[in-house]
Amino acid sequence: MTTPKHHKYLPLRPCVNHFSHPHPLRPIDEIQAEEELICSGCGLQVIGSCFMCTKSDCGFLLHKSCFQLKLVLQHKSHPDHSLKLLSTPPHNYHASIFICNACNDYGTGFDYHCSICKFDLHVGCAQLPKTINHKDHNHLLTLYYSFSCIKENIEAFLCDHCGQYVQNGLWVYHCEICDYGIHSRCTIPDDHLS
Questions:
Q1: SS3 of 13, please?
Q2: What distance in Å separates the CA atoms of residue 27 and residue 25, rounded to the nearest whole number?
Q3: Which of 19, 135, 147, 164 could cross-link to 157 by cystine, CB 3.0-4.6 Å?
């Protein structure tokens, strides 16, 4: 386990509990990028405030935002059922991974899950905004939960950012003005994908 070197650790700050971990967690401030710590919830690098396990031999930590996630989510992409936040993929999933229905990438940590439909979302995908500005485009892009929702009779969708074909059913951002579109993965800055 890597112990954060440059953080404000105040031993008298109260510990808190989180459903995803059996040990108490303590709030920590100012985690630095060079520490290369990874959130146990979303799997992305932690910079800034987080919650860290109080046990010295345990490397569990959460972004403050992951600590504060809603336990149950009603999402527009899956309107018929609520999604429950799981700390790990369901036990009946192969190799303890899930495939996100938004981006088609795997996940091993926090999972917004519908047990009825076997529908899964990364916590980051579940929080994608309805509209975005993208560095490669001048107009606002709108989120669609499938490219078939953009126009009738679309048979294929090619991401204008990376050039890859996108499966129908995966989330895309699209500009109606000039028919520019990208899949959701290409909206994530490169430094979050390493």
A1: coil
A2: 7
A3: 147
